[in-house]
């Protein structure tokens, strides 16, 4: 009856014999029933491949003759195991688990060889099977033990449940046909059971764990369910079988090793209380994923791979498609290297499934275009061959068969024309994997060849030796370090410092690798000594966090970028020394030096904040600070490299501040409304509250390290109260607390320092006034009580965050106030008087120097002329106060015919020149005072215009 035409001749005897075995076991009636279903060529092909490719499958079909017809007639037999809850006897449970396992294993062999299910679906089904079996065994044995000893409870009487973590392929839902399952057992808290014969929770759960293992692992007449491996638990075989959460957290924090981080990447709760499982995973997350980009993990992966390669050579495992060159393990290492290195900063990379992770790595630029797809194809082929090898006898093997007959059977079962065809495809796949593995895992020197740093290794080792002093000084002089003594002294001090002497071995090895690289790279800079001196404080700062040294050691271009930027700016060097986590910004020079728009910055910040637990205020505040520092570093790098001109630098710093204010306000709103509810008519979309920027922020002229001058306004009903919260308060108190919370978020000094210093003294009545003012009160104050200098400040005021509707109302009010007609003579006198007062108190210049900001003919003189012109003439030319930045106001004055093109151009040029020099000095951490011979032409131009305007 069975059509054999499509089966290779050499395999037909095997097929005929196995078919005969099933026919005898099934009986004539079942064979006849199956005949109709086997009339389709696809069904015959599936049967032939399964019978030829798997002796285990044939044996299961013979033991359970109804299985084969069921597989032919259905698309999925499912995983129903609810009936196990009614099992009374342990032996009956164990038998049911094994029969379910055998049936599901046989089905996935059939579906795979028939081409009905792809490898991801096969792996998911096997993983789901494991979870059901573990959970069924846990439930049955927990009930049985609880009936004898009572329910385990903590010190407060709450019932305790075991949590089972699935590691490795089970955790990633990538279980293969004959895989072990790596498990870790845990429970929440110590305590004891509440029965007549109480047990400590530790003993209860230990017995539960032992029983689960026995139900799954023991070999009976029905076989086994899964081989259980518990060696990944804390302390391995020498540790307790089960641990409570606090003990596990303590172990991983104090004794966890790098390879255990690798194992924990795929960890997932697979049985027991899932909420408690999620809680445990959160406790362990800081161990697995560092908050910084952590290249130290790659050394552990190299060591593991080296060990595996030695085993491969010693045991002749070159044909092992898991452990051999270009095998499954290398694909996994590629993906998990990026997870361990970057998963702390990029939560998306915590994805456990390799096939889902690879496209994410390519999307984020960690893999070259096209590599993810190539690795995925190779991985699927390797896993399919692995399944084919294991399917023959349900044995845990990844070694390609040596016998010709077995090779032909494997190729045929996998739908290939010949063994040679399959082997060629495998060779191509393994070659691709090996190449990409080397790119990711191989040490940089293995890829780049011998390093010029080798000549500096001896120098670093002998730098503190008096006997080698002259030789070392000559080496420094030849390399351009002048004076050589100034380079040798700090390097020798570092080498001999108590901190370096007390470093752990691993950290010392990283430093010993880094210093020759640093010296070699510094010698290539225009000013080697300056470069070295500016980077050494960073080295000292990271000695106890040597993973940062690994980041540089693993990425040679980062060191060049680091030296270049630190040489150009001590501000950048200082920021990196204070916040070494910013080093990861140097990894991608294209991103570092690519200017961003306001929308880019806001979108990137929103994405960063989405990665943070919305309930964790401390983490949110740290995320804001790290984002600000990273963006500020990028902007400074773009400025010193010339990628960003002066005006765009200020724009970028302003956009950054606006984005952070918007996010910080959203956080403050969430916190205050959770406690007090919302004012009537207010919502997160329209808070009836706005932040008004003054000064440099308002004028889009922020510099590095600028404070934020801001004022808060609202337009809610002053007599109203909040609703929906635990503690309603009046609206004015609500908005005051909102502003206070916002200032707290911005100014609090966390581990990463403050976000911004905030100055709110420009609000109505200054420090003696209310922190938050209604728009109506703001208008009344401006019309009736404000000083002239407060109207000058209004020229640079603009809304930057909060209610869009209220911001629009403020804009209209601002224009109305600025366009009011004023007595020009009185205005001129008051502006000049204020300027004279400021110069007397604030000018830091003298006969031989010039204060860029406060000196005569400096920045403030230009600003006061602009503000006077805006206040004096806006009533007849409202267009001159549309903008808040000085340059566009000067351009508007020209367009309105109120200032000559010649005059406006000279003032704009002078203003840009002053600000450019001010920015340069800020990046050099120098005061804004220059030699008196500088900017003479600009100062004369400004002073002449001042005299023309004010007399």
Automatic annotation (TrEMBL):
The PII-uridylyltransferase/Glutamine-synthetase adenylyltransferase domain, residue ranges: 303-440, 834-924
Ranges of residues in domain Glutamate-ammonia ligase adenylyltransferase repeated: 53-280, 560-811
Catalytic activity: [glutamine synthetase]-O(4)-(5'-adenylyl)-L-tyrosine + phosphate = [glutamine synthetase]-L-tyrosine + ADP; [glutamine synthetase]-L-tyrosine + ATP = [glutamine synthetase]-O(4)-(5'-adenylyl)-L-tyrosine + diphosphate
Cofactor: Mg(2+)
Region feature (Adenylyl transferase): 453-951
Molecular function terms from GO: nucleotidyltransferase activity
Keywords: ATP-binding, Magnesium, Multifunctional enzyme, Nucleotide-binding, Nucleotidyltransferase, Transferase
Family: Belongs to the GlnE family.
Biological function: Involved in the regulation of glutamine synthetase GlnA, a key enzyme in the process to assimilate ammonia. When cellular nitrogen levels are high, the C-terminal adenylyl transferase (AT) inactivates GlnA by covalent transfer of an adenylyl group from ATP to specific tyrosine residue of GlnA, thus reducing its activity. Conversely, when nitrogen levels are low, the N-terminal adenylyl removase (AR) activates GlnA by removing the adenylyl group by phosphorolysis, increasing its activity.
Name assigned to this protein: Bifunctional glutamine synthetase adenylyltransferase/adenylyl-removing enzyme
Organism listed in the record: Microbulbifer aestuariivivens
Gene: glnE
């Amino acid at each position: 009856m069975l059509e054999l035409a499509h089966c290779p001749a050499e395999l037909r005897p095997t097929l005929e014999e196995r078919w005969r075995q099933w026919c005898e076991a099934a009986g004539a009636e079942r064979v006849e029933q199956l005949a109709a279903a086997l009339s389709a060529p696809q069904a015959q092909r599936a049967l032939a491949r399964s019978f030829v490719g798997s002796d285990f499958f044939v044996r299961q079909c013979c033991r359970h003759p109804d299985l084969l017809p069921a597989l032919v007639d259905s698309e999925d037999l499912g995983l129903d195991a609810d009936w196990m809850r009614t099992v009374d006897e342990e032996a009956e449970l164990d038998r049911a688990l094994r029969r379910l396992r055998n049936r599901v294993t046989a089905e996935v062999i059939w579906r795979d060889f028939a081409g009905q299910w792809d490898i991801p679906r096969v792996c998911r089904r096997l993983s789901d099977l494991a979870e059901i079996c573990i959970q069924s065994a846990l439930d049955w044995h927990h009930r049985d033990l609880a009936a004898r000893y009572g329910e385990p409870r903590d010190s407060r009487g709450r019932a305790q449940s075991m949590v089972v973590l699935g590691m490795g392929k089970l955790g990633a839902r990538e279980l293969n046909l004959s895989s072990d399952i790596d498990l870790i057992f845990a429970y929440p808290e110590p305590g004891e059971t509440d029965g007549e014969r109480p047990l400590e929770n530790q003993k209860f759960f230990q017995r539960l764990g032992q029983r689960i293992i026995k139900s799954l692992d023991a070999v009976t007449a029905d076989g086994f369910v899964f081989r259980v491996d518990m060696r990944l638990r804390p302390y391995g075989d020498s540790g307790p079988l089960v641990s409570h959460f606090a003990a596990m957290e303590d172990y991983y924090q104090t004794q966890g090793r790098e390879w255990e981080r690798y194992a924990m990447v795929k960890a997932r709760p697979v049985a027991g209380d899932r909420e408690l499982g999620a809680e445990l995973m959160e406790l362990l997350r800081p161990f697995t994923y560092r908050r910084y980009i952590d290249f130290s993990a790659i050394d552990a992966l190299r060591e593991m791979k080296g060990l595996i390669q030695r085993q491969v050579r010693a045991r002749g495992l070159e044909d092992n498609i898991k452990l051999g060159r270009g095998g499954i393990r290398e694909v996994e290492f590629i993906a998990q290297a990026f997870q361990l290195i970057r998963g702390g900063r990029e939560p998306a990379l915590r994805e456990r499934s390799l096939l889902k992770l690879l496209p994410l790595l390519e999307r984020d630029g960690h893999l070259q275009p096209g590599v993810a797809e190539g690795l995925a194809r190779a991985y699927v082929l390797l896993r399919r061959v692995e399944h084919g090898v294991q399917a023959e006898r349900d044995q845990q093997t990844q070694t390609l068969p040596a016998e010709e007959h077995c090779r032909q059977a494997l190729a045929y079962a996998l739908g290939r024309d010949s063994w040679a065809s399959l082997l060629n495809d495998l060779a191509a796949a393994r070659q691709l994997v090996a190449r990409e593995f080397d790119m990711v895992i191989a040490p940089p020197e293995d890829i780049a060849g011998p390093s010029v740093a080798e000549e500096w290794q001896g120098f670093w080792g002998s730098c503190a030796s008096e006997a080698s002093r002259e030789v070392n000084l000559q080496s420094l002089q030849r390399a351009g370090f002048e004076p050589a003594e100034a380079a040798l002294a700090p390097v020798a001090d570092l080498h001999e410092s108590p901190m370096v002497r007390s470093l752990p071995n691993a950290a010392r090895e990283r430093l010993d690798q880094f210093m020759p690289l640093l010296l070699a790279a510094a010698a290539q800079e225009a000013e080697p000594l300056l470069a070295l001196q500016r980077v050494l404080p960073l080295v000292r700062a990271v000695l106890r966090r040597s993973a940062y040294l690994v980041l540089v050691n693993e990425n040679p271009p980062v060191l060049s970028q680091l030296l270049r930027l630190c040489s150009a700016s001590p501000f950048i060097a200082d920021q990196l020394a204070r916040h070494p986590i910013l080093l990861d910004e140097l990894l991608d020079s294209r991103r570092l030096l690519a200017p961003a728009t306001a929308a880019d910055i806001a979108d990137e910040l929103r994405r960063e904040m989405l990665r943070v637990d919305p309930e964790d205020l401390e983490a949110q505040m740290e995320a804001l600070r790290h984002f600000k520092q990273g963006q500020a570093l990028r902007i400074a790098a773009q400025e010193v490299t010339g990628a960003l001109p002066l005006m765009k630098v200020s724009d970028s710093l302003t956009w950054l501040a606006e984005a952070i204010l918007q996010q910080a306000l959203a956080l403050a709103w969430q916190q205050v409304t959770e406690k007090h509810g919302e004012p009537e008519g207010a919502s997160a979309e329209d808070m009836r509250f706005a932040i008004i920027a003054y000064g440099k922020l308002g004028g889009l002229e922020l510099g590095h390290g600028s404070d934020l001058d801001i004022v808060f306004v609202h337009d809610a009903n002053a007599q109203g109260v909040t609703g929906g919260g635990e503690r309603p308060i009046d609206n004015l108190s609500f908005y005051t607390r909102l502003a206070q919370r916002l200032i707290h978020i911005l100014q609090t000094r966390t581990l990463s320092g403050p976000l911004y210093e905030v100055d709110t003294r420009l609000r109505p009545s200054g420090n003696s006034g209310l922190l938050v003012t209604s728009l109506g009160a703001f208008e009344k104050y401006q019309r009736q009580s404000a000083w002239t200098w407060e109207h000058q400040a209004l020229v640079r005021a603009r809304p930057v965050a909060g209610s869009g509707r209220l911001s629009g109302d403020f804009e209209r009010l601002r224009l109305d106030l600025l366009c009011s007609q004023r007595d020009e003579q009185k205005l001129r006198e008051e502006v000049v008087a204020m300027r004279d007062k400021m110069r007397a108190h604030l000018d830091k210049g003298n006969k031989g120097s010039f204060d860029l900001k406060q000196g005569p003919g400096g920045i403030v003189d230009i600003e006061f002329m602009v503000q006077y012109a805006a206040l004096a003439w806006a009533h007849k030319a409202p267009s001159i106060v549309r903008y808040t930045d000085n340059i566009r106001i000067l351009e508007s004055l020209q367009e309105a015919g109120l200032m000559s093109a010649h005059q406006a151009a000279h003032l704009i040029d002078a203003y840009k020149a002053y600000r450019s020099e001010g920015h340069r000095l800020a990046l050099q951490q120098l005061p804004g005072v220059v030699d008196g011979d500088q900017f003479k032409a600009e100062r004369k131009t400004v002073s002449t215009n001042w005299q023309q305007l004010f007399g």
